[in-house]
Amino acid sequence: MNQLRIVGGTVYDPANGVSGEVRDICIDDGRIVDSLPASARRLDASGMVVMPGGVDIHSHVASGSVNLARRLLPEEHEADPAAAPALTGGDEARSGTGGTIPSTFTTGYRYAGLGYTTVFDAAVAPIMARTSHGELDDTPIVDAGFFVLMGNDEYLLRLVAAGERAQAREYAAWLLGAAGGYAIKVVNPGGVELWKRGARDRVGLDTPVGSERVTPRAILETLVEAANGLGLPHAAHIHCNDLGVAGNVATTLASMRAVEGRRAHFTHLQFHAYDAAPDGTRRSGARPLIEYINAHPEISGDVGQVMFGAATTLTADGAVEYLLHKSSGRRWVNVDIELETGCGVVPHTYKEKNAVSALQWVVGLELFLLAADPWRMVLSTDHPNGGSFLAYPELIRLLMDRGYRDSCLARVNQTLLAGSAMADGIGREYTLDEIAIVTRAGPARLLGLTRKGQLGPGADADVTVYARDEDVSKMFATPRYVVKGGTLVVEEGQLRRAPRGQRLHVRPGYDGAVETPLREFFDRHATVSFRNYPVGDLRDTPIMVGRT
Ligand SMILES: [Zn+2]
Fold first, then answer.
1. Of 270, 369, 411, 427, which has the maximum CB count within 10 A?
2. From the CA of 417, how far away is ligand 1's center (Å)?
């Protein structure tokens, strides 16, 4: 009953060395298997392209800040009503709204409709974790989890000030389990705290945050060591200091050097790759950054590509949102969450004729096109910060089609592009193999999800089948079939089923002694009791953690 043979498709499965071979994919009870009896149900994929389901390593789909953004943008809801899909088989179908931040159900439907089957929210304040789990419960089809914000939280800063790095590791383990999170997220380490204290200058790595012992560098080292020491499936996921600022590539490179030789993931690097021209304006700093990454196999990143059109910037980096609000005059909201982190939201529009937007678009493409190892520089738009996840097909076309890319480049504002690699011309065109790497195999590997992003026996049966089209953006925007966990969710391009997805989370062991001072801290300072803080048991089993 739960068997399916996808017949005759051209398979791209780079994790297993399969590059454009015509072969069948066999599915039994939610997993990929070697073979099936002849009687198994068949799905004809002749002439079509078959890949593992897409894996989004960095998105914003379920968190306190995402909900704030929804409330800030009522006009988006009105402009893009989303009718309930016509599901078969008795799954609940819900209407919703779209725009740059779709409602929960619509988020699940649209990701699946795009051929994506796994998504991570990249920034959840631990005290908001319960809300995030509630939102993910209402985001059907996709397997999902989130990264837990650390690095501007009062308790961690106290541990760093005391030089208690081992304690900090145990606290991080406790916090991940309490929140039901998947990875450690570091956002502008120490910088949000400095901004809250009134600082408005560039942060760099060595500005003291209160105590001389607490610096962005010390926080970064502490949390990278914690993620690696705990053997978490994903490295510490780092949003560097000085996002968006001219010359910030120096801070980004210094951050990478600070943790040299240790596994670390640097996110939305496009926003952190600006050099400064002599007149103080931004110019591309992509080349030195990608050259460093190319030479350091322990480092990985995602791009955070900017796509022209409407976006919503939302981040735990409240300092950045303050600057963007000041420069753009757009409405904004900022919240500090229980001394755990900040959070800000500002709507934004990236325009071809705007010099900074054009530079950002170019810097992102340079990171993709100059990356020597696509396994370590994967696709993201930092949805909805650089653009919606619905823009991924257009981004794929830019990577695969130089003629199209050059015609777009000719249209954009050239003011800040002098000396950039793109302006000099980059001939590279991504292959379907490389697209499969940056959209599924690579993110899955970086996330430590051994059963995702690949189609070998034992893998989760998450499979996307695309009908070929001259215009690859059309091909990737409307997959013909999508299978999630063995269930055919998209048939003939229509969403037909919406099973619930799995929650991806870890629960590392920790030294119980960490709880005594934590309980005291909660009793003294928190609005939530220590006992009520953890989210409790989740439906799905935690992913195994291998402490080293
Ligand atoms: Zn983000």
1. 270
2. 25
pLDDT for 545: 83
Give distance in angstroms: CA of 304 to centre of ligand 1. 8
Distance 382 CA to ligand 1 centre (A): 5
Contacts of 281 (CB under 8 A, 6+ apart): 246, 416
Dist. CA 123 → ligand 1 center (Å): 7
Residue 155: pLDDT over 80: yes
Q: Distance, CA 403 to ligand 1 centroid (Å)?
A: 30
What's the whole-number mean pLDDT along residues 514-527?
Answer: 95
pLDDT of residue 412: 98
SS3 string of 176-226?
HHHHCCCEEEEECCCHHHHHHCCCCCCCCCCCCECECCCCHHHHHHHHHHH
Give the Å distance between the CA of 508 and the centre of ligand 1: 24
188 alpha carbon – ligand 1 mean position (Å): 12
Dist. CA 504 → ligand 1 center (Å): 18
Instruction: Residue 207: count other Cβ atoms within 10 Å of its Cβ.
Output: 17
List b or e across 373-407, with b for residues whose CB sees 16 or more CB atoms inside 10 angstroms: ebbbbbbbbbbbbbbbbbbbbbbbbbbbbbebbee
The amino acid occupying position 497 is: R
Say how many Å lie between the CA of residue 406 and the centre of ligand 1. 28
pLDDT at 256: 98
Q: What does the CA dihedral 395, 399, 405, 409 come to, rounded to 10 degrees?
A: 70
Kindly report the average pLDDT of the chain as a whole number. 96
In this predicted structure, the answer to whether residue 90 has a pLDDT above a threshold of 90 is no
Strands (E), 18-142: 18-28, 31-33, 41-44, 49-52, 54-59, 81-82, 96-97, 116-124
Average pLDDT over residues 466-491: 97
Mean pLDDT of 33-57: 97
For residue 58, how far is its CA from the centre of ligand 1 (angstroms)?
6
CA of 244 to the centre of ligand 1 (A): 13
The answer to which of 190-204, 379-393, 422-436 has the lowest mean pLDDT is 190-204
pLDDT at 48: 98
Give residue 1's pLDDT.
57
Please give the biggest Cα pair distance in the chain. Answer: 71
Q: How far is the CA of 511 from the centre of ligand 1 (A)?
A: 31
Distances (CA, A) of 418 to 271, 358, 371, 415, 523: 18, 12, 21, 7, 57
Supply the pTM of this predicted model. 0.97
Dump pLDDT digits (tens) for 49-79: 999 999 999 999 999 899 999 999 999 999 9
CA 27 to ligand 1 centroid distance, Å = 34
Q: How far is the CA of 443 from the centre of ligand 1 (A)?
A: 15
| Spacing, Cα 5 to ligand 1 middle (Å) | 37
Q: How far is the CA of 319 from the centre of ligand 1 (A)?
A: 14
Query: Which amino acid is it at 76?
Result: E
